Amino acid sequence: MIAALGLARRGLGRVWPNPAVGCVLVRGGRIVGRGWTQPGGRPHAEAEALTRAGDGARGATAYVTLEPCSHHEQTPPCADALIAAGIVRAVVAMEDPDARVSGRGVAQLRQSAVAVAVGLCAEEAEELNLGFLIHRRHRRPAVTLKVAATLDGRIATAGGESRWITGEPARERAHLMRAQHDAVAVGLHTALKDDPDLTCRLPGMESRSPVRVVFDSRLGLSPTSRLARSAREVPLWVIHGERADPDRIARLAAQGAIPIAVATDAGRPGIALALAALAQRGITRLLVEGGASLAAAFLRVKLVDRLCWFRAASLLGGDGVSAIAALEAKFLAESIRLRLLDRTHTGDDMLETYRVLP
User: Fold this and answer.
1) pLDDT tens-digit series, residues 335-348
2) What pTM was estimated for this model as a whole?
3) Active site residues per annotation
4) Mean pLDDT, residues 312-339 taken together
5) Following DSSP, what letter does each residue of 34-83 receive, concatenated?
6) pLDDT score at 73
7) Helices assigned H by DSSP within the chain
8) Preceding omega of 141 cis (within 30 degrees of 0)
9) 176-213, pLDDT tens digit by residue?
C-alpha cells in the first residue's frame, strides 16, 4: 500500500477533477502490475495496473489507495475491470466519498466473491487526497497557504525588497508544490509588484505548471504582465467583482485569460464564492502564495486547510512587511490554531507544514 500511495502522488496536480489513485497488483509475493491515474484523470490507476499485469492479474491481490469506482462515465467501472481480470482479494485504503461510489465499489467486489479489506493506511490516503475529499464533501478545493518569511515573520524590507527571503533549495521546493497543485493563486498587489510567472520551472517539469489564479476585484492586472502575456500557454483565471469594467473583461479574454465574476464582500471577491467557482471548474487543490492581504483574507474566513511556512534563517525587524495582514483578533481565543504535521530542512531554511484547526 505504501508503494501504491507513492504511485498515486505522481498524479497530484495533473488529474483534477479526479482523485490521484495508485494501484499495485501482487501475486505469489511478487508485484505483477502497477498503475496510477493518468494526466486528465484517465485511464484510472486500476486499469493501468491491469494492462501492465496482463494474465498475471488472475488470482492476484489489488492494493488500491481509493475505493474502485462503480459507475459508468468515460470508461467502464474499475470494480468491473478488477472482477473480470480475476483478482481474488482487494485491499483498499479508504472508501470514496463521491455519492456515485461511496461503498458501492467495495460491495460490488464482495458480491463477486472478492475478499475486501478497507482501512490500511487510511490516514495517509486521506492526506494524499485531501483536495478530492474536500471537493466532494464541501464543494470547494483544499487550500494550502504557502508563506516564505524570516524568523520574525517578515516577507519584505520596509522599502519593499523581497527577493530572495529564502534560499534556492526552498524555492525549488516551492516550485514542486506548484506542480502538485491544480492551481496557484496570488492577489493583484503581488501580481503587479512581483510580475511573477507562477509556473513550475523545475528541469523536466515545466509542463506541470498549474492554472494561475489572480484575485483582482477591478481587473487592474496589466495586459503587459508576464501572467497576461502567457495566458495562452499556461491557463490564467482572473477572479473579479461583478461590477468590473466590461472593456477590461473583454481585453483579458482576448489575451486568452478566463475572467470569473463572483459577488464581492467589502469590495473584494468573496473567498467562499471564489472557491466554489473554482470547484465548479474542477479545481481540487489550490496553493495560495500571496501576498499578506490575500493570506489574511483566507485565514479570516477559516478557509485554509494547510499552512506551509518556509522559515528563513534571517531577521528583518519590526519595520519589515508582515507575512500576514491584520486578522482583527482582539482576544487570544480568536487566534488561528495550528497543529504541526511535518518539519524538514530546505538548505539553510526550514519548511514547517501545519494543519489549520477548525
Assistant:
1) 999 999 999 999 99
2) 0.93
3) 46
4) 91
5) EEEPPGGG-S-HHHHHHHHHGGGGTT-EEEESSPPP-S-SSS--HHHHHH
6) 66
7) 2-9, 45-53, 78-85, 104-111, 122-128, 130-138, 168-179, 188-194, 226-229, 246-254, 271-280, 292-300
8) no
9) 999 999 999 999 999 998 899 999 999 999 899 999 99
